[in-house]
Amino acid sequence: MKKTFFEELNAEYGTGVIYKNINLKKTVISYLAQNGNATVAELCKELNLSAPKVANLVNDLIADGILKDFGKVESTGGRKPNIYGLQPESGFFLGADVQKDHVNIGLTNLQKELVHFAEHQPYELRNDQESLDELCNLIKDFIKKVNISKDKILGIGINLSGRINYATGYSYSFFHFNEEPLSKIIESRIGIKVFLENDSRAMAFGEFSSGTVNNEKNVLFLNLDYGIGMGVMINSQLYYGKSGFAGEFGHIPIFNNEIICHCGKKGCLETEASGWALTRIFKERIIQGSSSLLTSQMQNMEEISLTSIIDAANNDDTLAIELIAEIGDKLGRGIALLINIFNPELVILGGSLAYTGEYVRLPIKSAINKYSLSLVNNDTDLRISDLKEKAGVIGACLLVRNRFLLPA
């Protein structure tokens, strides 16, 4: 029996006619995904191929259920051509955005539409085998619940914090137990091709592709959560750096203190301007006698978390608002440094701290004005993430989709 395109894609063809046809079909799908429906003549021009060859590729993809013939289009004269486009439900991409205390999982179709989204699935991210097993089980349970044939899920993107080499599939901060890449280990457990990505970079790509970015080409995305991460877009391209580790904004040694950062060094921005820092300072203030809504709600100090502090701020808790403003001022100092270096058109604030809105945005903006060059920051807009919890999931799905459509 003749293999479908997706079956051919997963087979090993290093060279030859089959390999060439696979890449040509990828190009057809990619063009339609980026530009919408097209005629054979338009595809001929894009692929620089003859009409019979393009017609054969299109017919094969129609037979596989990936493309659809939408009938004749209006023409200024002569024979009316047929127009072809993607069948959105012929393939899907799964994204799993792994946070400290939950996982967001979603599914997009070939047309980039988020068709299923499971938010805040309970999960504890720890660097042990049990936590990895639980993550695999969460993904498998999600696949069962969406009731979509597993062979239609063309790839899985998993976002983790810390050092990720997306090209090799290694995670150096979590689940680095084996010589084999983590992507391959999870792939063998789930049975679908897996790609790893840094969580902040995936969130950034989600915003760049489907969020608050309009026509801006040089953008910084800041993931303000327990830690501080960053995604960078330069000339409309996601920037990775030599080893794929670009964007470690939280580990700029900006403070002269003796606080040990999670990276093992002292003075990092994260030690005084992150969710970890906010939680630590909040508890210290409570011990020193400050009052808060949380003191009557929590049985002990261990129950106070970043989420509970953010909720308190959004319920007009004076201490929470005051400390978030202090964190915002310190963040703004660091962002001013970035603006002086990158001169971006846009800085996007994402992550859980951004959910406090103007409580964090205004002190950040004030500090940017104070510490960055006015000629530079006048050209930089500062916005809150549009996608919020969906940013990482959409980014993971779209990154996998792009790699899937990229010719080998």
In the predicted model, the low-confidence regions spanning at least 5 consecutive residues are none
Calculate the mean pLDDT score and round it.
91
Choose one word for the global shape. globular
Find the count of extended strands (DSSP E, 2+ residues): 15
Class of secondary structure makeup: alpha/beta
Biggest beta sheet attributes? 5 strands, mixed
What share of the residues does DSSP label as strand, in percent? 15-25%
The largest sheet has its strands arranged as: 6-5-4-7-10
**Cα radius of gyration in angstroms:** 24 Å
Helicity level: 40-55%
Terminus-to-terminus distance: 25 Å
Total of DSSP H or I helical runs spanning 4+ residues? 15
Order of helices and strands: HHEHHEEEEEHEEEHEHEEEHHHHHEHHEH
Q: What's this, in brief?
A:
With 408 residues, this protein is α/β, with parallel strands linked by helices.
Textual characterization of the structure:
The protein is 43% helix and 19% strand. It contains 15 helices and 15 strands. The protein has a five-stranded mixed beta sheet with strand order 6-5-4-7-10, sandwiched between helices. Strand 11 (219-224) and strand 12 form a beta hairpin. Helix 9 (275-287) packs antiparallel against helix 12 and helix 12 crosses helix 13 (358-371). The longest helix is centred in the last third of the chain and has 25 residues, at 318-342. The two termini are 25 Å apart. The mean pLDDT is 91.
